[in-house]
Specification:
Two copies of one chain form a homodimer. Chain A is of the alpha/beta class and about 375 residues long. The first copy, chain A, folds into two domains: about 5-265, Alpha-Beta Barrel (TIM Barrel), CATH 3.20.20.105; about 275-370, no CATH class. Chain A is about 45% helix and about 20% strand. Chain A has helices spanning about 45-50, 60-65, 70-75, 80-85, 95-100, 125-135, 155-175, 195-205, 225-235, 250-260, 270-275, 305-310, 315-320, 325-350, 355-370, and strands spanning about 5-10, 15-20, 25-30, 30-35, 55-60, 90, 105, 110-115, 120-125, 140-145, 185-190, 210-215, 245, 265, 280, 285. Chain A has an eight-stranded parallel beta sheet with strand order 4-14-13-12-11-10-6-5. In chain A, strands 1-2-3 form a three-stranded antiparallel beta sheet. In chain A, strands 7-8-9 form a three-stranded antiparallel beta sheet. In chain A, strand 13 (about 245), helix 10 and strand 14 form a beta-alpha-beta unit. The mean pLDDT of chain A is about 95.
């Protein structure tokens, strides 16, 4: 089995398009990864996720280690077989969720001990245990164990946290070892500070990874600060490896980050929004609960080719969402994932044609036009 | 457009197999109709319902008249287009749900006035309004408006209630008129009393319907009394029209009723059970929440060809159901509907081969063997 390889086919300004080649299939970049937290992309069958155009899913180490447990998933043949998805899976390290979801955390140089948010049981996440759990899951792209620096925080806190993450990155690299067919990504930290981002990028590059993630953004700093920080983040990362902006984001965040040289994204937004009745369209997002949709025979998005838009009216989605019917979550999730994948395909095509600026301008213009005309 | 026609191809004792021919497709009998209460078979896309083998769905007039409202559905092109199901739909009359779900009911000779369980708004259901609502929905098989006699009740109450239903049946017939391509079914009442069932059958036959339903059973009387009553019910219904046992039922109830000459069934059991983690198998039903399934790599039913059984383990269903993931409801509902449709196909084939007694004996024997051997 060969190592995972990244190939670029075209650039346009700082943006790039290409593919990450894995034994389980190619990941076309820029790529959006739907989130399958607990071994399921919520309200979707895997075949339907694939039909939206997804090449790769993200699984959450924190959730899976607590329930059903990584050794159990390993005994059952790994996460791919367990959840019936045979294409690539990226797993996060658990570091972000342990900070946002667990209780009774204790952070030391070794790692984080914490109590499960499900049953209070005690667990340790460290670079070594995170690598072992991600191996048991059978992850194709493994993430280093890091501390996600909170925002806001002082410069000193950002520095201390980033340096801990860099020591953990080195331990993660060592614990991961050499696993043909599997990739290990480093995670850059440093908050919104350009010099810390540079230092972090240098530390990671020195260790050497198959890809580099930008961590600690989209945590409340706002789009303007995120974009200006991102310029510093990307400047010092290797050109020939994929760059992954973790947890991002809104469609407009993705477009801006692709313009700045990011290749991979993940976010719960399309799936979570689908369950709460929000639908993405080229003309902005709509809330299907709004009374104006109650008798609207038109689809959510007249330009979309997903089953939600080809087979159902806004009126039907309004009715089933208000009636708390599962089908509303199924259809709106499907549509939102398809919207995101169409956006990524549009970005890839625009970069390939070196027309990304025109694409981005049209993207913004359409959204400013607002929702389709009232009936 | 021609009238709906029923053809029998074979009989075996009192059981029959054939088809009801409608402009929207044939309904193979004995038939099981999945319940699509609020314009959706819960947790299923219509294409998936069809893939289980369903020829027809049931819609609930009571729910649909309250939300989103029958005039709205009519303006949106009818229930078929609204919910994306182009095959036959049978709608009940609303009579049963108004008794079980609504508040502040007042029953008169004219009909039932009641308050919506959703928003307290006032409504009237009568033979005439029920026919109009079912017409607005675009129902292919319309049910007479009747009073479902409660159980237990005195003989006098059963008689009074049945005779009211017969007067309502006559008004329903008159209000329905002549609608080529659409059928009207009468509903027999009379509780567990043989003479009342006979009187009711004679009243309905005299009015003349496209099919005859047995109402007021499976309301708590138990299987033994239901079967013995059913013998009296069926004896006086026309041979050449379909017979529909409303709201039934468990797999063993269906087998027993087919042996007694019933052609059509509906029940929420496969769908509701799917959402609560119960799965039907030829060897009886299992509760996927049970800890013994937590690491079981085998499918719910090794003999089943549905996606739940071909693509997922009991361990996965246990995990996702316990994690309250929507996919568990999607997969178990799909499996249960497929189980029911395979049962119906087995019954039809057995009748066609005049081997129904052997089929029924094998059905009982397999269930007595219990769940598959422990790991």
């Amino acid at each position: 089995m060969t190592h995972i390889r990244f190939s670029l086919t075209q650039t346009d300004g700082n943006a790039r398009t290409g593919a990450l080649h894995t034994p389980r299939g190619d990941i076309r970049t820029p790529a959006f990864m739907p989130v399958g937290t607990a071994a399921t992309v919520k309200a979707m069958l895997p075949g339907s996720v694939r039909a939206t155009g997804a090449d790769i899913l993200l699984g959450n180490t924190y959730h899976l280690m607590l329930r059903p447990g990584a050794p159990r998933i390993e005994r059952l043949g790994g996460l791919h077989g367990f959840m019936n998805w045979d294409r690539p899976i990226l797993t996060d390290s658990g570091g972000f969720q342990v900070m946002s979801l667990s209780k009774l955390r204790k952070l030391t140089e070794d790692g984080v001990t914490f109590a499960s948010h499900i049953d209070g049981s005690k667990h340790l996440l460290s670079p070594e245990t995170s690598m072992e759990i991600q191996r048991q899951l059978g992850s194709d792209i493994v993430m280093c164990f890091d501390e996600c620096t909170p925002f806001p925080c002082t410069r000193d806190e950002a520095e201390t946290s980033m340096r801990l993450s860099m020591r953990w990155a080195e331990r993660s690299r060592k614990a991961f070892g050499d696993r043909p067919g599997h990739a290990l990504f480093g995670i850059q930290q440093g908050g919104v500070h350009a010099d810390l981002r540079e230092e972090s990028a240098e530390s990671l590059t020195k260790i050497g990874f198959d890809g580099y993630a930008v961590g600690g953004l989209a945590v409340g700093e706002g789009q303007e600060l995120m974009f200006s920080t991102l310029d510093h983040c990307v400047a010092h990362l290797p050109q020939d490896k994929p760059r992954y902006l973790m947890g991002v984001g809104k469609p407009e965040d993705i477009v801006g980050a692709v313009l700045r040289g990011i290749d991979m994204f993940d976010c719960v937004m399309p799936t979570r929004s689908g369950r709460t009745g929000q639908a993405f369209t080229p003309r902005g997002s709509i809330n299907i609960r709004n009374a104006r949709h109650a008798e609207d025979p038109r689809p959510v998005d007249e330009t979309c080719d997903c089953p939600c838009c080809t087979d159902y009216s806004r009126a039907y989605l309004h009715h089933t969402h208000k009636s708390q019917e599962i089908i509303a979550s199924m259809l709106l999730t499907w549509h939102n994932l398809r919207y995101y994948q169409r956006l990524m395909a549009g970005l890839r095509d625009a970069i390939a044609a070196q027309q990304l600026n025109a694409f981005a301008a049209r993207f913004t213009e359409q959204r400013q036009a607002g929702d389709i005309d009232p009936l």
